[in-house]
Design a protein that fits this description.
alpha+beta, 6 strands, 165 residues, Beta-Lactamase
């Protein structure tokens, strides 16, 4: 395959270009929102950062700031979800309302937005989960192949998690 045949993914390129804009991290997060809506799909998209010491999550971005405002914080309880996503850096796919009910205390708000499945994609640096991209959609929307499709976008989010706004 030649270089011309390989080409560059236009969605990844759009996110990379957004990283160079001065209005950070807003430009980066908005580009990720748009790119992931096109590449994978979502009704609700949030970006969270995690603090290992306090075991708190802070929302940095939301495409629905009314019900999910940026700046909101929540304490995370130990459990299978936190062990997998935060401690081990594994993506989590919840496919049904029951899956969401089992791991999210705000499952009723999620359902009220027409969402019944989730892809939580960790953003990793130096063996630690610093945050996650969280895509939510109708039941059964996300599949295992979405994890690989989301990974480069998640890692492109890294400067927005490391750099204060």
């Amino acid at each position: 395959m030649t270089r011309a045949q390989l080409g560059a993914d236009p969605l990844l390129c759009a996110v990379a270009v957004a990283q160079g804009r001065p209005d950070q991290p807003d430009a980066l997060f908005a580009a990720l929102d748009e790119a992931l809506r096109s590449a994978i799909g979502h009704k609700l998209f949030t970006i969270l950062t995690y603090d290992d010491d306090s075991r708190e999550a802070a929302r940095l971005y939301s495409n629905l700031p009314g019900p999910y405002p940026p700046g909101a914080r929540k304490r995370l309880s130990p459990g299978p979800w936190t062990a997998a996503v935060l401690d081990c850096g594994e993506a989590y796919i919840g496919r049904t309302p029951d899956d969401l009910r089992a791991v999210f205390s705000d499952h009723e708000l999620i359902a009220s937005l027409g969402c019944a499945s989730v892809l939580n994609m960790p953003v990793r640096w130096r063996g630690r989960t610093l945050g996650s991209l969280n895509l939510l959609h109708e039941a059964g929307w996300y599949v295992e192949d979405d994890v690989a499709a989301c990974l480069p976008f998640a890692q492109l989010a890294l400067p927005g998690l490391l750099t204060p706004s």
